[in-house]
Amino acid sequence: HVQLVESGGGSVQAGGSLRLSCEVSTTSTTTNCVTWYRQVTGKEREAVASITPAGGTKYMGDSGKGRFAISQNNNKNVVYLQLNNLTQEDTATYFCAAAPECGGSWSTVANFGYWGQGTQVTVS
After folding, report:
1. Residue 29: phi, psi to the nearest 5?
2. What stretches of 12-81 show up as alpha helix (H) in DSSP?
3. Short-list 37, 33, 27, 34, CA closest to 2
4. Tens digit of pLDDT for each residue in 1-25?
5. Where are the alpha helices (DSSP H) in 1-105?
6. Are 86 and 101 in contact (CB under 8 A)?
């Protein structure tokens, strides 16, 4: 059974930074793609960035280009999302999710069967 646990959220002033962590309980063919999403209440979930732990391929959505970075630890069981130069528009609950592959569908919510509980980021 795959579990994902996010941490690192909090409150920060505009222009500040946070590093989110997503710990994946097991690395296998079912978790070849790990994506960070974010969601504001009442709005659709938005894909932020993705990584393939095995190969290290990275994808970044438009909202994070130039400001965010995705990486992983040496054991490939923790995926990080570095958030820099935060604005109030980045306020959301951030989730990580896992799927068997990224490919051309790294941002498609329906492809992800494993989700964490989310961590709140508030920018003031």
Report:
1. -65, -20
2. none
3. 27
4. 889 999 999 999 999 999 999 999 9
5. none
6. no
